[in-house]
Write a structure and sequence with these properties.
Number of strands: 11
Largest sheet: 5 strands, antiparallel
CATH architecture of one domain: 2-Layer Sandwich
Structural class: alpha+beta
CATH class of one domain: Alpha Beta
Protein name: DUF4283 domain-containing protein
CATH topology of one domain: Alpha-Beta Plaits
Organism: Nicotiana attenuata (Coyote tobacco)
Radius of gyration: 22 Å
Pfam family, one: DUF4283
Helix content: 10-25%
Distance between the termini: 49 Å
InterPro entries: At4g02000-like (IPR040256), DUF4283 (IPR025558)
Number of helices: 6
Strand order of the largest sheet: 5-6-4-8-7
Length: about 240
């Protein structure tokens, strides 16, 4: 039985966002003007709160290529259904992977984590790493690979389109912004500049601490299947509100 997404369904980017947003460190203030809501303490969810899935997700049964099929809405399949697995990394070996006990023990030796990490087997050369801490998930993904028992385990960000026989086109890369005006070496401004390239992830320590005025270094998540933007040029229009083009 196949699992398909409904081509006529709403794309995740078209989902209407709620009017009330969580307070973020960057914005500094709650997005709602309701004083009672602003003072309400944050809700802490159990790590297992979503283990049974979202009951609001619906599916319909159909026939696809002569076979029974289950069809989910695109917005559900790539949205709420994938949310539980967003802190997941795929580890791939070029040859038959080492034994799982050795993979787990070597991972603990090489990587220090404070949260929970579950490492499970997918097939003879692929494992799945599921993290409970987002910062630790990022830190491991940024490493690109880990050597285990003389083999490199290549690390990929999991996506709903994951297939073990295909390499993920989504990778973290460093973007260098040479001669970026020093007053732009701030996360809010830098992420606006690099957003045409991909999803901004973080700045390096020198940029964050403003100890290297000549260049800003930003890590960006890019999709290698999309057209590549190779140049961000400092423009004389900076004083008119268009810093880079």
């Amino acid at each position: 039985m196949e699992t398909l997404t409904d081509q006529n369904s709403v794309h995740p980017s078209e989902i209407t966002k709620p009017l009330l947003k969580k307070t973020t460190h960057e914005e500094g203030i709650p997005s709602t003007s309701n004083y009672a809501v602003a003072l309400k303490p944050p809700t802490i969810l159990s790590p297992c709160a979503n283990r049974y899935g979202n009951p609001e997700v619906k599916a319909r049964f159909s026939i696809h290529n002569g076979m029974p099929a289950v069809i989910f809405r695109t917005s559900d399949y790539y949205g709420v259904m994938a949310e539980e697995w967003r802190l997941t990394i795929v580890g791939k070996f070029l040859r038959t992977r080492p034994q799982m006990e050795k993979i787990r023990s070597k991972f603990v030796e090489k990587i220090t984590v404070k949260g929970n990490v579950k490492i499970g087997v997918y097939d003879y050369r692929t494992v799945i790493l599921d993290f409970s801490n987002e910062d630790e998930w990022k830190s491991v993904w940024y490493r690109i690979s880990i050597e285990i028992e003389g083999q490199l385990m290549w690390l990929e960000k999991w996506t709903p389109n994951f297939k073990p026989e295909e390499d993920s086109p989504v990778v973290p890369v460093w973007v260098l912004l040479s001669e970026l005006p020093f007053h732009c070496h701030t996360w809010h401004y830098v992420k606006k500049i690099v957003s045409p390239i991909g999803a901004p992830l973080s700045m390096d320590l020198a940029t964050d601490h403003k100890t290297r005025p000549s260049i800003a270094k930003v890590r960006v998540e890019v999709d290698l299947t999309k057209p590549k933007l190779t140049l961000l040029e400092n423009s004389p229009m900076a004083t008119q509100g268009k810093p880079f083009q």
